[in-house]
């Protein structure tokens, strides 16, 4: 963070900008994530929108989650190009703000949507006697998604109203959200509010709620449920908590620590934070597994499609075998006649 253009980069940030191998490694991970993201979530969106009926609250939440993942997949190629050009952004301040907003909106909308799916499962499994009165209904699910987007956009509003590009004269590059101005926000209180909103409101609180919901579901099913249902619930809880702890927790914790160190002690953890952001994108590759274990209809439709493909391939193999069999016998017959 800096307040003027005549400044010198700290050693950690300079090392990041000059480390070509790290840049290539992060870009390679982003390329793999982009491919898996667009293929997996594109197929999931088609299945959720056109092949899954009725549109239950869980399905609506999954469509919302898939939409944020596809946005991220569309934005990552810009991040890849930016890093491969040596952290030089040449698409202007507006595009930088849009891409940065898309990146962080995906993370926090995903977190809030996973919390919503967890609450919906908690009310349906742990509180079945109150199902009609308390469980999320379709209009409420749509409204919840709109509220999620509104909350995230309000917290991240500084990213929309500030020029996030910065000319690093000593390296001859223009960065995008890698060197922040202190006057991006008016004072330290505004910075504290911004960080509190990102780390505590958009991450820590949803993480606690989601953990409580899935632990309660597992405890309920452990007492009285079928083995298959219990196993699916445990796998779903494991995947969701894995996404939180492996994808979301490192970047949010490091963001808080890095900002405090940078504002008050002149130190930096930027290299570690940049790497953690890379891993946070992996959530978009794991989300289709959440759909599989969370939705019975999604699971059945996917199995049906896979079975149809496997049956068609088996039929083609049988036809080839028959053709080969008849061809062989006809050849033998012709040879016998020739003799």
Automatic annotation (TrEMBL):
Keywords: Cell membrane, G-protein coupled receptor, Glycoprotein, Membrane, Receptor, Transducer, Transmembrane, Transmembrane helix. It is found in: Cell membrane. Signal peptide: none annotated. One of its GO terms (cellular component) is plasma membrane. It comes from the Eukaryota. GO terms for molecular function: G protein-coupled receptor activity. This is P2Y receptor family member 8. It comes from Gasterosteus aculeatus aculeatus.
